[in-house]
Each structure stands twice: as structure tokens, then as C-alpha cells.
Amino acid sequence: xxxxxxxxxxxxxxxxxxxxxxxxxxxxxxxxxxxxxxxxxxxxxxxxxxxxxxxxxxxxxxxxxxxxxxxxxxxxxxxxxxxxxxxxxxxxxxxxxxxxxxxxxxxxxxxxxxxxxxxxxxxxxxxxxxxxxxxxxxxxxxxxxxxxxxxxxxxxxxxxxxxxxxxxxxxxxxxxxxxxxxxxxxxxxxxxxxxxxxxxxxxxxxxxxxxxxxxxxxxxxxxxxxxxxxxxxxxxxxxxxxxxxxxxxxxxxxxxxxxxxxxxxxxxxxxxxxxxxxxxxxxxxxxxxxxxxxxxx
Length: 297
Description:
13 helices, single chain, two-stranded antiparallel ribbon, mainly alpha
């Protein structure tokens, strides 16, 4: 039962991160997800300092606001400061993440958070972190309810704004021409990434969140040219990553979050090499056959 709970929690996080990661990959903003996942740390700490509570809603609000600030600063430094996008991302997220680490260090006695928890997480503790009602009823692992709620919100966000997100991703000029605000949907997407990131912090940590934001969508991108198929493949790969990562950690007595990230990387490598149409090995074999046929003729 505990194994199922851990795998379920990992799958929920994988699907939420992967769906948003599809848009980040196609917008060539994959590293923005990395930036947000680190930069929201001061938002989490400040939310706790102001409220004295680790309530999930408070953390989500704090992280969401700092996530939007991160996006704004990246755009501002890029457009006004004439910095390249990668330089803007590097300056912004390292600065904000460092501030978060300093806040944790300075207020260590007041903040019930630590750097290791935020970076690495511990998904193995999911079955122990239970939601208990005021009447004493045990509802099950709290992380599953939080991750499930976030996934539902992400699905609703994509369903309601599918047209706008699609157009602003593939043809922002056309979207602007027909009256769709590219800036608004850009910030809404970044806000969704921020919320998903902080909701996943406690269970899987920032490093696995980054892996799940990028690896499954990048893998799905190599498998199909159709966006809807990419979304579906990303969800499937995310679930496989969670299951494979759990059993890899079980048999090797390793970190579950680390094992899941490793499995995500292995799946990407296999697809990169052996994908039916775009795989490196397959393309090499096909080219050699074509060259051989041409030479024979």
C-alpha cells in the first residue's frame, strides 16, 4: 500500500510538471522552469515568516508571487538590459535562490524548512505525512491530496486556455493580431509553473521537479509532431518514470527522487537513440542503407 502511495504521488507530480513542461519546451523556455523552481524559495520562506504557518495555500501564494517576479525580472533584463535570455535567467534565479538560502540560514530557529528538504525532498515519507481531520479521521497522505488538486487545476487551466496557450506558443504574432494577449498568457503559464513547483517541493524536491518539467516533455517531443499526442505521451512517460524510479530505488537502496530523475534521463536517452523516426541510431542506419542503395545503383 505504501509503495502504491509513493508511486501515485510521483505520478501526479510527473503529470502536472510534464504538461506544463510541454509548453516550456516548445516556447524554448525550458530553463525558465529551472529558474522558477529555485527562485521561489524566498517566497516560501517569507510566506512562513509573515504567517507563521506551513499551510499549503500560504506557501503556494508566496511561491506564485515570487515566480511571477522571476518571470518579470527575466523579461525586464532581457528587453531593457539587452542581456541574452540565458544570462537573464542565470542572474535572476541564482540571486533569488541565494536570498532564500540566506533567509533560511538567518531565521533557522524560526523557519521549519531546510535546504536539503527543498533541494532533494523525500518522497519516501509520503505515507507518513497524513491528513488528519479535526475529528481524528485519517484521510490518507496529505501530499496526494495536494498533488491531485494541483493536477486538476492544471488540467482545467489547459482545457480552458488551450486555444490561447496553443496560439501564443506556436504563433505569437498571429495571436496578437487576433487580440490574444501574449503577455497575459505568458504570465499565467509562469504562475502555473510556480504553483506546481512549490506544491511538489515537500515531496520530491527542486531537483526532481526540474527533471520532470524537462525530461518527459523532451522525450515526447522526439516521438511525435502532434501537440496533443505530445501531451499524452508526456503523461505516460511521467507515470513510467515514477514506477521505474521507485523500483530502481527499492532494489538499489537509493534515493527515490534521484532514481526517478535517473530513469527519466535513461528513457530520454533510449528515445534519442532508438525513436522510430528521429532516433540517432535509426537515422544512421537509414542513411547508410540509402547510401548503399545509391552506390549499388
